[in-house]
Amino acid sequence: MSAQLLEATLVQYEQLIVLHHSERLVPEEVALLVTCLKALSGSVSCLDIVHHRSLISSILKMSMWNFGTDVMDALMELVISLATSSGQYVDLCLEMLVSNFMPPDSFISLLNQPRGILRKGQVIDRVHSTLINIAELVPLSPLRLERIIAERMPLIFTKEPLILTYVENMLKLESGAIGDLVGRTMLVAIMDRLIDLDVDIAWDDILQEDFTKGIFDMELEDLEGPVDDGQQDGDELQISWMERYFSGNLNAQKLDSLMVLSFEHLNFCKESGRLSQVFDTLLQSFQQTVLTAYKSKFAQFVLFYACSLDPENCGRRFADTLLHKFKTSTYPEWRMSAVAYLASYLARAKFLSISSVAEYVESLLEWCSTYCSNQSGGINPKAHKEFYAGCQAMMYVLCFRMRSMLAIPRIRSRISKHIEDILRHPLSPLMVCLPSIVEEFLRLAKVTHLDVPDNFVSSGLLESELSMAFGGRERLDMFFPFDPCLLMRSDRYIRPNFVYWSMVRSSYDNDDDEGTSDEDDIEICTAGRGMNIANDGAARSYDQDLDEFDNEMSKMSITPKVTQWFGGELRSDMQMPSRIRPCPDSL
Questions:
Q1: Which pLDDT value is given to residue 555?
Q2: What is the Cα–Cα distance from 317 to 321, expressed in whole angstroms?
């Protein structure tokens, strides 16, 4: 080969490497690029990964988002040819395809425009069809793909449009043709990222205005005022306080958007008959990451929503798993976390039948009763913290479900069989569990004529030294993981299946007004709501009450203040939640 011919060949080779680098290709350049890509597809056997490193690298760095469909198709044809020609190209090709899960930064502003939406669909469809083709021709490629996707998953500080698009692609893979091979890894990685975002959102960010107030104190202040149109006005008010707390928190907004994506995917799985299979993976992920992440505030609602779609299967399996963890785990903190999740879930899950809730409450009572029968000592919060956690869980659930459960004679008999012996045992759970929950439980027990000790003296405190002792450093005595979801978009999915404290408390308040005097009950401060909820009589079932109250806008919780849950210093001026704080005049 003459020197001139060699020089000309090198020039053409260099031109081939940089051909696609121009920001705007004219039609002739597009046609030339397509021709070159197709020519390379037919001659991949002549390429050498060492000698043609620059050319291969240049091709695999191409972003499909910058080209039209002609170039995309030619490029995907070349990628398939490379991946199937030699094993040394497989990882490179898979990495190239995964890199196209997200658009370049310059394209972000177009994602919500018609042109951007069209281009996004064109890219994603071709990326996934190419991944499927490679998987069919290279059977081990899905295993490599799992690793690459997990390693390249965007960090929590990535821009929201980019991380959303990446997760969309992961969910598309999970439900696609190779979902059986890579689906579990996709779901676990997504749950891990939800947890990462979740724990990065500190309660201090939410409570920054006044640390003497709890979350639901501020919620009460925002929701105070007359309500005329029920749900509609409630939505507007709820949006107001959610925006107040999270409008400037980018990670909270990312988490909210990712959870909505997850909810929509779960809906799709239910429609396609795959929910049970997906729930298996979510449940395993929950036990490995969420259950042990004591700072988790929102990610667990993915499980809650999945359970609401299939209460008889997923709903019961979730409760069974939590109960089993509480009874059998070798780690006390895990047991306490599990029973906290169980209590909050049973109290809040509107889709669970009363008989199902009663079954788990009875199981907790039997466990506590057996524990009591094996103990002869007195109060010791640290030594018996699992016991106190179980007792508090039982009382917490009954605060929400007592009326409906005790209306059934069979359930009332079973509950009464154990509860008095447990509460009167020298271990004295009424003295150790959170006073705010104990007082509310005893007040409601009196309303429903449940036989419980009546010598408890109200302390007017949110917490006590004893409750802090059994809660431990992580303050698991104050952990109620399914309190109202404060993420605005996610809340719309959770709300129809959620029991809010105001739904329950309003009906008991009506009973207090009609059948008891102020002196007979522990005095309770209730914030004005401007709404009158009719009480049709004691014979009305709890489920009917929930239907009536489902559209009420007030979404309170009896959960104590949570600033100190996650490592903050304990404060001596902590208060009970507004909803059940004793009035100043009664102190």
A1: 39
A2: 6
pTM of the model: 0.81
Q: Is the dihedral of CA 441, 444, 446, 452 positive or negative?
A: negative
Q: 166 to each of 98, 258, 387, how far by Cα in Å? A: 9, 10, 44
Query: Which phi and psi angles does 498 have, rounded to 5°?
Result: -120, 135
Question: Residue 315 contacts by C-beta under 8 Å, 6 or more apart in sequence?
Answer: 307, 308, 349, 351, 352, 356
Residue with tokens 């005095």: 523
Q: Which of 192, 264, 214, 302 is nearest to 575 (CA)?
A: 214
pLDDT at 491 over 80: yes
The token pair that represents 295 in the structure block: 């700072």
**Phi, psi torsion values for 349, nearest 5 degrees:** -75, 100
Q: How many CA atoms lie within 13 A of 275 on its CB side?
A: 25
Let me know the angle formed at the C-alpha of 157 by 143 and 213, rounded to the nearest 5 degrees: 125
Pair 83, 93: CB distance under 8 Å: yes
Cβ atoms of residues 452 and 444 within 8 Å = no
pLDDT of 155-183, one tens digit each? 999 999 999 999 999 999 999 999 999 99
Residue 75, Cβ neighbours under 10 Å: how many?
27
